[in-house]
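Q: Hi! First time asking for a complex rather than a single chain. Here are the components, and I think there are two in total. Is that enough to go on?
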Amino acid sequence: MEERRNLRYLTDQSLGGDQMNILTARNLKKHFGGVKAVDGCSIDIESGTIVGLIGPNGAGKTTMFNLISGFERGSGEITFKGQRTDNLSPFKIARCGMVRTFQIPRALTKMSVLENLMLAPTMQRGERIWNVCLRRKKVLEQEQTIKEKSMGILEFFEIDDLRDEYAGALSGGQKKLLEMARAIAIDPSLMLLDEPFSGVNPTLSRKISGHIDELREGGMTFLIIEHDIPAVTKISDRIVVMNEGRVMTEGKPEEIKRRKDVLDVYLGGEG
Amino acid sequence: MTELLGAILPYITTILLFASIYAVFALGLNLEWGFTGLINFGHVAFFAIGAYTTVLLNISGCPLIISVIAGVALAGFFGFLLGIPTLRLREDYLAIVTIGFSEVVRSILLNEEWLTRGPFGVHGFDRPFQDAVPYQHYNTFLLILFVAILAIVYFALERLIQSPWGRVLKSIREDETVPYALGKNVFSYKLQSLIIGSAIAGLAGTMLAFYITYINPCTFKPIETFYAWIIVILGGTASNKGTIVGAIILWAFFSGTKFIDRIVPVPFESHQMGAFRMIVIGLLLMLLMMYKPEGIFGRKEELALSD
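A: Yes, that's all I need. Here is the structure of the assembled complex.
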């Protein structure tokens, strides 16, 4: 009950605690047997910024994402909008306004593109059985609003012509756009994007960058894992470099690009 | 002509009575498996709980309608109890646990004679409006009642499935990580699906008891669960309409082949025919999987979709 009250507080407030940082993670640790996937990482994400999280394979980036979004339990403190979230389930964290995407897009294949989007908004009236049975009119009214909003998001991502297609019939790039669109449909304050540019052609990559930039202009905050260094450095305000489960360094993209130790670790000294 | 009709009508009534009971039973499974992706191999347990609760309460003096409500509610409650420890399990483990649960329930029915009368079974309970409807028309009345119940269950499920609630269930079936990441309490929805599916199975159990007028633990063998699975797969998974048609086809087949030896010579004794029918059903299912894997009302295009 206490937690529920806290959740309501969180969703109703703008930023609590530190007004600058929407997310603060301190001393995160996650070990898998003897492997220290994340080993004492700390990260601050300023509200309204785009932060790139880079590092070689096995650096612990995805585990870090999983810890922040609640999909993995480890140790350390995570504060989102002034409230501790390290003890919350992923669905409760999502309700607070932090949403994530996955490295391999997870489209709900046998549902239409529009249904995929309409699923997203949290706390829909029609998601409760008694409302479906007893408050049908209100459920239908809200359903119409959600449909219109979802269509707007599909138009923003320029995939509105695919609204009635099965999500499983989309191309890899379209699935990436759908996943981003679906995440945005829950009105998040912070989006965690896991490799949004991987496996997409340069045109689509530019399009995704444009969308992220536009959403940031609207006040959304992003944490992006990405291996496409030119793409992520171009779009990010700040880059955090991870290696062997630790934060190796962080700074502005142009500084990071010039750091020899980063190039050595990340590019094997070939940069 | 009138004579022929007089002979055929009760036969058709029997087929439709069984079909309507098993359609309701399978609609519960379709909600769990077809729409939520829960593999429940113990569906018969709730069929038994519904039937036994209703008849035992009734023979203890409880009014019939209260007994029915209690039967349905208790089946749903056991769905809730089973769901709490098991719904976090992976699909295959859930299947094993549920089949185990159904056997535990059957063993209790068989051995707790003080409560269930054990292998002797239960009879002598009331049937709905049995005093008001003449005996010779009772099955026709029961058929009308059962079709009405089936229609109510069907339309209620359709309304739920078309709603945002149903959308969440379908998303869990597709990939439960997605609704989880989007703020849905996946466990709660799975539990709701299991409770409703179990309550519907309990209602079907009550219907069965009313029709056959005598139940014992052998009525609720695991094969009953697999009849529901056959019906759902035959009709097309995630199609309530298909489930109803599947139930009619299955019972038409069961009843249609019962007296086949009177029409064409069959090299089997009558007791071997039952096993032979199951072999034929198995073969038909294999052919269905090969040539129409989506079932009668399933959507073929969905089979080609990949992640």
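A: Chain A touches chain B at residues 69, 71, 90-92, 94-95, 99-100, 102, 104, 106-111, 115, 118-120, 122-129, 132-133, 139, 143, 166, 168-169, 182-183, 186 (CB under 8 Å). Let me know if you'd like any chain examined more closely.
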